[in-house]
Amino acid sequence: MAIVEVTIAPMGTATPSISKYVAACHKVLEEATDLKHQLTPMATIIEGDLDRILEVIRRMHEVPFTAGAQRVSTLIRVDDRRDKVLTMAGKVKAVTDKL
């Protein structure tokens, strides 16, 4: 299981606001009921099978183009741990237990 952080940012739009693009991307993600996800102020965190996550991110990357963006920048950061089960909640708990 992997945890992936993704930021999808359209460029070449009429306004600096991107919330409508983020919302449209999240609609694609919500259709992927086999993946857990969390929206944060700066990115989206996705938990699940890495191949499946990348497949969904590819579809999300296309959303701003279909909404009129001329350029899209997608940043992906992957945490893929294979020696034990990795979850978003587990990563947060590992730190908060030490506070």
UniProtKB/TrEMBL annotation:
Gene3D superfamilies: 3.30.70.930
Domain Thiamine-binding protein: 4-95
SUPFAM superfamilies, alphabetized: MTH1187/YkoF-like
Record-stated family: Belongs to the UPF0045 family.
Protein name from the UniProt record: MTH1187 family thiamine-binding protein
